[in-house]
Amino acid sequence: MLLIECPWCGPREEPEFHYGGQAHVVRPADPAALSDADWAAYVFLRDNPKGVFAERWCHTAGCRRWFNVLRDTVSHRVLAVYRMGETAPAVDPALVEGAR
Amino acid sequence: MTRYSIWSLARNALSHHADWPRQWRSPAPRPAYDVVIVGGGGHGLATAYYLAKEHGIANVAVLEKGWLGGGNTGRNTTIVRSNYLWDESAALYELSLKLWEGLSKDLNYNVMLSQRGVLNLAHSLGDVRAGRRRAEANRLNGIDSVWLEPEGVKKVCPPLNTSASLRYPVLGSTWQPRGGTARHDAVAWGYARAADARGVDIIQTCEVTGIRRDPDGRVAGVETTQGFIGAGKVGIVAAGHTSVLAAMADIRLPIQSHPLQALVSEPIKPVLDCVVMSGAIHVYVSQSDKGELVIGAGIDGYNSYAQRGSVHVLEHQTAALCELFPVFARLRMMRTWAGIVDVCPDASPILGKTPVPGLFINGGWGTGGFKATPGSGYVFAHTIARDEPHPVAAPFALERFTTGALIDEHGAAAVAH
Ligand SMILES: Cc1cc2nc3c(=O)[nH]c(=O)nc-3n(C[C@H](O)[C@H](O)[C@H](O)COP(=O)(O)OP(=O)(O)OC[C@H]3O[C@@H](n4cnc5c(N)ncnc54)[C@H](O)[C@@H]3O)c2cc1C
Ligand SMILES: [Zn+2]
């Protein structure tokens, strides 16, 4: 079970949270101008790295706020937690198992 | 290849089973092949077998980073059925089930297919409507599904708690008598032995680390931990690692990798002679020939490559199990494990060509691809050999995410496999 640090409430166990998939997927500025392929990419195509993944979580059983997490998808280690709208902090590569 | 038969069994019994020949060779890789299959699970091995058998293409290598069947093939809960909703899926899974029915004979290998029947329970009005609709759709496609009212469910499965006092009472169920289970390892080994006998090279502990392309963009071969291996065509059949392999050829996919866990109980006397699945309260169970209950449920929510999940998911599924079968409440659990499943947004696989000429993908089977192993290999071999999709595979091409022609099988797949 993951121990996730909510930026507002502190460390809580995983069942308190809801997973939101990849973070920082930008909504198209001009949706009407998009081709079918661009739409497919926006709606369906996602990163699926073996290593560091920037993802969203919602603290559904707590403050109910969304936030971002950098997590290693091989060790499950939570590498950083940051608020919506912030950019991902740099991570120490020595902590990442997936990249090795 | 020595044929297995009652005579070979008797002959080898005389020598205390010490003289059985190896089931397949372990050759060093050749410099190049007509086709290289990445991934030595059931789907990859079946693809190689049908390439050799149906299309006369035997200059094929199957490259496996670990050991044969050590991925999801050897980790799955072995439920086989074909009761999917849409025509496209019905065609694919029913083709598979038909192949299953002749597989032990075809491979000369006992895959222990046990058609003990599969129940998919309904616990709400929505479930009932979806279940009835699916059973009717199945019958229009010639699949042996029926709808059972609670009394009928109880008849098929006496230990199941069908009382109205359940938190989520059983309001009915679909029933596919031809569904059941098979022996997972035997499927990998049987296909490996039969493919090897037709000349396919099976190379274990050989991880693909890159996909090399010609200057004109066509696939040229694969970089591996045992050096470069040339290939006219490459098929990616890597289940949980599909995205990782595709990224080697700069292809992004609509796939996310998740852990899927299962667990088995201590062995007990025969008590459950069919497969029971509940997509709504998240548990499914069957009893193995050894007597263990084999129990599974849904994926862990987060992306992962760790073959490890969280304990609260197991807690949830065992709670659901005890509600449905109070008689199991005091059983001890022996082992838990996880595989990494490649989940698609519409719960259907991706099967076919890619934007890179000579590169093919067979993945996205997610939580439910074991049942499709023979059919998947059959249509994928055709797709690779002819360089055009087999008619049954065509709707499952990657392009469906651009055209919007998704094949939504969440109802049939969900927790269920
Ligand atoms: C717990 C669990 C329960 C399940 N229950 C069911 C069920 O009841 N019914 C059902 O129909 N389905 C079930 N499934 C799903 C089913 O197991 C899979 O869909 C199916 O086995 C996939 O087969 P495969 O041959 O594609 O994959 P795998 O057997 O995973 O084979 C892929 C292989 O590719 C190899 N590989 C990966 N990367 C590389 C590389 N770079 N180089 C070389 N090799 C590589 C892997 O080591 C692996 O052996 C379950 C899955 C799990 C995890
Ligand atoms: Zn919080």
TrEMBL record, chain A:
Alphabetical list of Gene3D superfamilies matching this protein: Folate-binding superfamily
Biological processes, Gene Ontology terms: tetrahydrofolate metabolic process
Pfam family, one: SoxD
Taxonomic path: Bacteria, Pseudomonadati, Pseudomonadota, Alphaproteobacteria, Rhodospirillales
Protein name: Heterotetrameric sarcosine oxidase delta subunit
Natural source organism: Roseospira goensis
InterPro entries: SoxD, SoxD_sf
Record-level Gene Ontology MF annotations: sarcosine oxidase activity
Database matches in NCBIfam families: soxD (TIGR01374)
Automatic annotation (TrEMBL), chain B:
Principal location listed in the UniProt entry: cytoplasm
Source species, domain of life: Bacteria
Subcellular location: Cytoplasm
GO molecular function, one term: sarcosine oxidase activity
SUPFAM superfamilies assigned to the protein according to its UniProt record, in alphabetical order: FAD-linked reductases, C-terminal domain, FAD/NAD(P)-binding domain
GO CC terms, sorted: cytoplasm
Catalysed transformations (reactions): sarcosine + (6S)-5,6,7,8-tetrahydrofolate + O2 = (6R)-5,10-methylene-5,6,7,8-tetrahydrofolate + glycine + H2O2; sarcosine + O2 + H2O = formaldehyde + glycine + H2O2
Cofactor(s), by name: FMN; FAD
Protein name: Sarcosine oxidase subunit beta
Oxidoreductase is among the record's keywords: yes
Family: Belongs to the SoxB family.
Single Gene Ontology BP annotation: tetrahydrofolate metabolic process
Keyword Oxidoreductase belongs to the record: yes
